[in-house]
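To whoever picks this up:

The parser on our side crashed when reading a file containing two proteins. I've narrowed it down to the boundary between the first structure block and the second sequence. Both blocks are reproduced below exactly, byte for byte. First block:
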Amino acid sequence: MFDNYNERIEALLESSKEWFMTNVVNFDHIIQVGVVIILSGLSWFLGRRIKPYLALKFESLKVSNRLLINFINTFLSQLMGLHLILFLGIGSLVHTQFAGEALLIDLLLTLTTVWVLIKLATAVIFDRFWSRAVSVSAWSIAALIILDVFDPMLALLDEIGFDVGEVHLSILSLIKAGLLLLVALRLANWLTVYVDKQLYRIPHLTASARVLISKTLSGLIYVIIAIVVLNSIGIDFTALAVFGGALGVGIGFGLQKVVSNLISGIILLSDRSIKPGDVVQIGEVYGWISSLRGRYVSVVTHDGHEYLIPNEDLITQQVINWSYSDTKVRVKIPFGVSYDADPHQVRDLVIQAVRSIPRILKHPEPLCLFRAFGDSSLDLELEIWIDDPKNGVGNIKSDVLFRVWDVLKENGIEIPFPQRDLHIKSGGKVID
């Protein structure tokens, strides 16, 4: 098989060499090459000189139409090609008049004209990637047709390949599949972005449902792309049974955690126990959910750290969701006063003091509870309610304790510390 391919390639190279020696390597064509080089340099020089002047002229027109702006920019980028077309046309006429047919000049004139026309036509495509991809592909096909090698090239690429089972994969089929895959991925990317924008416009759709729908549609889109690409190269899906079995074994042994996190992510999105914006505490991590991903949850803390916690941990471990069903949160703040203090007076003072803190809710009202007679103090506990746990719990505790300290100091109420009385008995016998 490969010997046949080698013979075909050697024959093609030999015919190309013969054409090159016959049509290029002669005195007249060498002169044409020199003329083309000189005209190309002149076109480049004039394009560089004229482009700034024309850009200022177009800018003074203050064009607002996006399509027209894109066409003007494309036109300015092709000034060298336009000058080269003009000069090559003149050169071809002069050469034909005095020295006969200008094969190389006419060939370059045709290729340059086709390139400029394709670039101007693709100016209607605003995406830069698509514009370049379409223009390069169209010009490449046109060049092969102009050179009269398009059909032989396709035939050769279709013959060179290898067999996978009963499927023959040629270079041509792989190129087609690659181009189809590239186009399909770009379309899929555009489609997923469009779907996300449309989902955000639905007012009653929750954030978790929005993410779940978006991820599900994205997965379906990429599955369809895989099916289409594989089908385009003639692969029967029954031939993938062995690959599917191997993939299943790989998942069973090496990708357990990955699959577990993916499934856990779907569960979290569907049951809405965790959603973007929730304030959660997972172990020592306290923060709010920034985003839900297929493999992990992003939790941002008040110190600017962003923890990427695997989805599986949120399913199997205890999670405190401070805003699961209600954003109101009760915060308990214990403190103690001296046994000489009146607990009734302390209760009234601290409740009145903390009411002026903006973050503390008026309803439910703050409470001060007498918890126990401690070893060195009367143990009390202040209970307050807030509805913005996202802004932090530790800082509101700090504000309350500062306010309690101030009001107790102002009223001469002592905050005790542990004390111990040590009694030393004397009267033991002294031995000289």
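<<boundary where parser fails>>
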Amino acid sequence: MLRWHDPNAADSPFAPCLFHTFTGFWCAGCGITRALHALVHGDVARAFAMNPLAMLLLPFGVLAFAWGGGLRPAWAAPIITILSKPMLWVAVIPTYWILRNLPWAPFSWMAPG
């Protein structure tokens, strides 16, 4: 779908973020669909501009998916151990959510765009 449909287009089949629609603030996930659309089209810089945290975490998500599928290289065990700690995400996600809504640089650079 992301190859053929642009999430930025007016006739996009992708739903808009309800949090942003109702509040005007960016949620931690805002821009992920547009970032993945940019990645499918080979535009890494644009993908990073849409949601920097998601793009930084994408390789770790692939690693976690492979780990869950049974591919468990020894070098990945410490990374998976860290990623599986809920307190990491309890700290990272809300912090990112707040920071990307601050109106001055460098935090404003985290907003999709």
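After patching the parser it read the second block fine. The chain has six helices and no strands. The helical segments are 18-23, 32-40, 44-50, 52-68, 77-83, 86-99.
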